[in-house]
Specification:
The chain is mainly α and about 475 residues long. Helix content is about 75%, strand content about 0%. It contains 18 helices and 2 strands. The protein has helices spanning about 20-25, 30-70, 75-80, 85-115, 115-135, 140-155, 155-165, 175-200, 210-230, 250-260, 270-275, 280-310, 315-325, 325-345, 350-370, 370-400, 405-430, 440-470; strands spanning about 5, 480. It starts with a strand and ends in a 6-residue tail after the last strand.
Amino acid sequence: MSTKSFDSRNALNGTTSPKTFLAAHPESFEDVDEKIREERRIRTKADLRLCTIAGLLCSLNLLDSGIISSASVTSMLHDLGLDQGNRYSVSILIFTVASVCFQLPATLAVRIIGPRIFFASITFCFGLITLCTAFIHSWKEMIIMRVLLGIAMSGIYPGLSLLISSWYQREELQLRFAFLQCGEIIVLATGGIVNYGLNHLHGNGGLKGWQWMFLVQGLMACVIGIATYWWIVDFPEHSDRSFKFLNSEEARIATSRIQRDRGDVIPAPFTWREILRHFLDPKIYGFAASFFLLNLVSTSLSYFLPIILQSGMGFSTNQSILLSAPPYYYAVIPVILSSAIGDKYCLRGPVIVFNSLCLITGFVMLGFADQVTVRYIGTYMATGAYISNWAALNSYQASNITGQWKRAVTAAAVTACNGLGGVAGSFIVRQQEAPRYLTAIWVSISSHMFIICIVAAFSIFFYVANSKQTKGRKVIEETEGFRYTY
C-alpha cells in the first residue's frame, strides 16, 4: 500500500498550512487571511447544520433508555411481566445484541448510500417501532420490539462519528463531539421531565402512563426522521448536494481543509479486503476496549438511575423520574470545558485520565457515603465524567487514524464494543443489592482504572512512534507527515 501525503505546494489550494505559506510568500497575506475567514465561516455552517442534527439523532438512543428507565418505575414491569426473573435486564440486553450485530454493515452503508437517505430512514423506523411499543401486551412482544429497535439504531452512533470526523480537523474534533453530546444529554434530561408529565396522563384515552411515554416520543422521532432528510449534510466532498448548504466552491474549500490536515478526504474504492485489513491494527482493539469499559458505567446509570433513586435512596416514583434529569443538565458543563481545553492544547490522554478520576470519585460517593445528599452529588460527578469521556475517547480514536474506510471500521468496532459494555452494564445493577449496589460501584471504579492503564500504554506507544517519525525512520498511518495526538 503506497503512502499518502497531505503536504503540497501552496496554501491557496488548501494542501499546506497558511503559516508555512506566509513564511515563503509574505505578499499573499491578504489572500491567506481571507481564506482563513472563509474556512471559519464554512466550519460554523457545519456546526449549525451537522452538530445540531447529530446531537438530536444521537439522543434517540438515550431517549430509548430514558423512556424504558422512566417506565420501569411505573406499572410497565408488572403489566408486561418484566418483573419476573431477569426479563427486564434481558430486554435491555437484546437491544444491544441486535445493535452490535448490524453496526459494521450499517456504518459502511452511511458511506455507500449517503447520510441523508440513511439517517432519515433509520430515524423514522426508530420512531415507528417506539410508537408501536405503546400497544404491546407481554414481555415476549417487548423482546421482539427491542430487537427491531436495536437493528434500526445500529448505525446512529458509528455513522455520526464517521460523518463528524470527516468534517473537522483533528484539533477541532473533541469540541464537536462535545456539541453532539450536549444535544444528546439535554434531550435525554428533558425526556425525563417529559416522562414525568406523560406519566400523569395515566388512564387518559384508555392508556397507562408508560404507554403515553412510548406513543408521544415515538411520534416525535418519526417527525424528526422526516426532517432529517433535509437537515443533515453529506460528506465534505459531496456537501454541495445537501439541501441549501454549501455551493461547489465552498464544498471545495471544506474538502481542502481536511485534505490539508490528514489527506484522507476521498475514500479508496470499496473492497472487503480493504475493509478487513484494518482489523489487523492493534490500536482498534485498544480503542474498542476503552469504549467497552466506558459503557459499563453509562448503561448502568442511564437505564437504572431512576431505580437507584427509588430503591437505593427512598424517593417516590415521580421524584425518581424528575431527579434523574439534573445530573444530565450538569454534564453539559464538564463536557464543554474539558473538550475546549483538549482541543486548545491538543490533549487527549490527560483529559481522559482526569475524567476517569472524577468518575471514580463520584462512584465512591455514591457507593460509600451515608448521606443521601452526598450520594446524589456523586451521581452528578459520575454522569458528568462519563459523558465527558465519551467525547474525549471519540476524538482520541478519530485523531489517530487516517483513511475513510478505516474510520468506518474503527467507528463500527468501538461502537460495537460500546454496545457490549452495555450488555455487561445492564447486569451490574442488581436489585437485591439495594441500597448500595456494590457490584455496580466496584465494576464502575475498576473499569475506569483500566481505561487509565490503556491511555498510559497508548501514550508511550504514540510518543515512541512520533519520535521515530521526527527522525525520518517511520511513516505513521501510511501518511507522510502524520503524527499521533496524545
